Amino acid sequence: MRPPRGCGGGGFRGRSDGPGDRGRSFGDGGRRDRGGRGPGKGHRVGRGRGGMKGGSKVMVEPHRHQGVFIAKGKEDALVTKNMIPREVVYGEKRVSVKNEDGTKIEYRVWNPFRSKLAATILGGVDSVWIVPGARVLYLGDASGTTVSHVSDVVGPTGVVYYKNDRLLLQSFCDGQEKP
After folding, report:
1. Tell me, what's the pLDDT at 117?
2. What is the C-alpha separation between 82 and 151, in angstroms, rounded?
3. Beta 159-163 vs 68-72: how paired, if at all?
4. Secondary structure class of 105 (helix, strand, coil)
5. Integer angstrom CA distances of residue 6 from 3, 15, 93
6. Rounded to whole angstroms, how far apart are CA atoms 127 and 121?
7. What DSSP state is assigned to residue 102?
8. DSSP 112-124
9. Are 1 and 9 spatial neighbours (Cβ–Cβ below 8 Å)?
10. What is the predicted pLDDT for the residue at 89?
11. Domain residue ranges in the chain
């Protein structure tokens, strides 16, 4: 049995390539020994996507900004009500919650690392002028991550106009006075 790290033990542990190198175990084909700490980086244990689980474990509360919600479960997450249930836009996680009357409502998790607007909302901005029923002009929709959630926020009574055209943005910026 090997003593825990940091408690002595010494002995030959394979070749060393210099300070900070933990050496190699024999027979590992040149890969580094993980020391019994599970699979290496990039290797998944088990199956499934993980993340938020729906049902009775998750409770959804309205956020102070209209049309945005907080899913409280094992991990809290910013979510928007999915306008088209069972539809995934960019591979986001979904959470389904049962109402008191037994109907299911589906929410889409809004990742603040993929959307600056979501990060701003989580950061505590005072007001987001995107509310249910609003008409929104969204310039620069790139991959559609944020604009799809903005569409969820404005709902079926609102409209989102979007354009991802660098020439349009460049001509808009060229027309502005420079300080």
Report:
1. 92
2. 9
3. unpaired
4. strand
5. 9, 19, 41
6. 9
7. S
8. TTT-HHHHHHHHT
9. no
10. 87
11. 59-162
Q: Which helix (H) or strand (E) holds 81?
A: strand 77-81
> Torsion angle, CA of 139/142/145/149, rounded to 10 degrees?
10
pLDDT for the residue 71? 92
CA distance 97 to 65: 20
Residues forming a β-bridge with 59: 72
Running along the chain, 179 residues long, what does each successive block of 10 average in pLDDT? 49 48 46 51 46 65 92 91 90 90 92 93 91 89 84 92 66 53
Structure tokens at 40: 């290496």
Alpha-carbon distance 80 to 53, whole Å? 16
Tokens found for residue 126? 């005072």
**Per-residue pLDDT at 171:** 54
- Asked if residue 167 lies in contact with residue 145, where contact means CB atoms within 8 angstroms, the answer is no
DSSP state of 161: E
pLDDT of residue 72: 92
Give the helix/strand (H/E) hosting 146: helix 145-154
